[in-house]
Amino acid sequence: MAQHDYSDYWKENLKLLARCMVIWFFSSYGLGILFVDQLNIYQIGGFKLGFWFAQQGSIYIFVCLIFYYAWCMNKLDKKFNVNEK
Amino acid sequence: MDLKTLTYIVVGATFLLYMVIAIWSRAGSTGEFYIAGKTVSPLANGMATAADWMSAASFISMAGLIAFSGYDASVYLMGWTGGYVLLALFIAPYLRKFGKFTVPEFIGERYYSKTAKIVAVFCLIFVSFTYVAGQMRGVGIVFSRFLEVDVSVGLLIGMSVVFVYAVLGGMKGITYTQVAQYCVLIFAYTVPAIFIALQVTDNPIPQLAFGSTISDTNINLLDKLDEIVVALGFNEYTSGLKSKTDIFCITLALMVGTAGLPHVIVRFFTVPSVKDARTSAGFALLFIAILYTTAPAVGSMARYNLINTVQPGEIGTSEGNLLYANRPDWMVRWQQTGLVEFEDKNNDGRIQFYNDQNSKFTDQASKYGWQGNELKVDRDIMVLANPEIAGLPNWVIALVAAGGIAAALSTAAGLLLVISSSISHDIVKGILRPDISEKNELLVGRIAAAVAILIAGYLGFDPPGWVAEVVAFAFGLAAASLFPVIFLGIFYKRINKYGAIAGMLTGLLFTYGYIEFFKGLFLKWLGSPWGENIASNWLFGISPEGIGVIGMILNIMVAIVVSHATEKPPQDVFDLVDRIRVPRNN
């Protein structure tokens, strides 16, 4: 059987992964840890902003991020005709 | 109806439910026993994964940990959820495409090496037993407090229940009981949280409530909390004591460790397709997030309630503190378990609860006539005692007991299954007796599960002193050994067996050595810990909890260097990697 070349599919996947990792890193390590003191100057409701990202915001972003990745990958699978049938 | 009878009824009813599910979903083949025949829907698997993951520690201990350490406890919140992003993006879909039964099986095939497989089995068993001992202890605590039976009797009951559905049902039985257990535990966690949120702030949604104002005032709860804890000599609730480097490393070690835990990874082998594996990871984190975003709300309100109870009046006035004779019922009850202790150091008949370890606060405290902190509250009771502290009805308390047991049992069962399948499938079938029949392999799996339950029960009954300390090690180990080789196995074709084995051993030994050096694990008879466990002694200021990150980096570097210095992996390994990278190919 002829070997297909899936390298373009893989490259697009890696690009998507890199994009997601930037968001993942920024929302937790960035907003929740590294810049927490700067953000704590601001308040939303009764929360200091940095504290909120560390204990709430980052988790919401993680959930959305996984669904976003799954959605993009399903599109990518179809585009390269490698989706399961 | 009194609390004890009610608790028996609620806990008994949940046990009955688990049994019925177990009998209905018995496993008939190895495929069903190991991976539920790949027929679990992504939504059900998401719930099962959430129950599998959220252990006695998440349910019972985490909110208490947050209550007492405030911002610093964010490492657990971010670490134990952010790991799912890594799992969903880098591990789960590819191992699902691989389509076999266990994690060591993947490592063995990808690195064409029995040695690599054995090292992986060793890591898996160590990590899993560490964990399971903690679950069994959690079951014991809940039983002894709420059903007033001996810890050992409680353990035996818990072991028998797990025995029935793990041994009979295998992964299939475990999956569907975990779905039921998720429903029980999330209901038991959120209901009291909503009640307490209403009492403290008038806002019924816990996630919003702890950012709201305290009932009948216009002061924000967190601002008030910061103010009173500082006035009692504690550290401000919304900021931390740990260094940024350490927070960073602990969070990363927990995330990577989470993504490398075999009992979580293997859950994604049970769904029908790669696409389902991706979606299912999203559902899993969504279900986990419901508890993990509620926990910090519970933590802050529990801390506020506790301080308000013992310090009803102005701080520093002699009438400001609660009279010991007037202490509430829950305190009396928990004192019987030894998890709440009181000692009247200044003989004034009142309870003083403050931070006597803070040298800057000592003068202030002695001016108040305080001679040391008089109340010790074990942080593990915060969630269990919370409904009592808030004066909630008995059925809520009974529900919390059932929830704690569900959290512990579901995690224990998942762990016991990966232990038994790596013994029956990786060691017996994979190495010792490759020609074993499916029927006999299934029998070996069941026997291994039974033996694992007995060992786990023993560890829970008589926990060696080091159980608590090795939890950090379990995550460090998963982060420094299992995660990097799985990740590199998928994303870096050139890594060969020498690189993988050298990398795993480097990560393992380094992480183990560092924790042994500062905390002491198995070599106490040789005088460990050898180093004082304080920040100024740590390598780059990283605590033993966070050192898995350095172990992981070393693992990856060694794996790359060694692989490039030795021959390329064979062609069929390249083909294997190509195959798992794409959902459908020929």
In terms of quaternary structure, what is this? heterodimer
Tell me about the largest β-sheet of chain A: 2 strands, antiparallel
Q: Outline of chain B, from the CA principal axes? A: globular
The helix count of chain B comes to: 22
Structural class of chain B: mainly alpha
Q: Spell the H/E element sequence of chain A.
A: HHEEH
Mean pLDDT of chain A: 90
Strand element count of chain B: 2
Comma- or semicolon-separated keywords:
heterodimer, A: 85 residues, two-stranded antiparallel sheet, 3 helices, B: mainly alpha, Sodium/glucose cotransporter, 22 helices, 69% helix
Structure description:
The complex is a heterodimer of chains A (85) and B (586). Chain A has 85 residues and is mainly alpha-helical. In chain A, strand 1 (43-44) and strand 2 form a beta hairpin. Chain A has a two-stranded antiparallel ribbon. Chain A contains 3 helices and 2 strands, in the order H-H-E-E-H. The radius of gyration of chain A is 18 Å and the shape is elongated. In chain A, helix 1 packs antiparallel against helix 3 (49-79). Helices cover 74% and strands 5% of the residues of chain A. Chain B folds into 2 domains: 53-304 and 389-581, Sodium/glucose cotransporter (Up-down Bundle), CATH 1.20.1730; 305-377, no CATH class. Chain B is 69% helix and 1% strand. The mean pLDDT of chain B is 87. Chain B is built from 22 helices and 2 strands. Chain B has a two-stranded antiparallel ribbon with strand order 1-2. By secondary structure, chain B is mainly α.
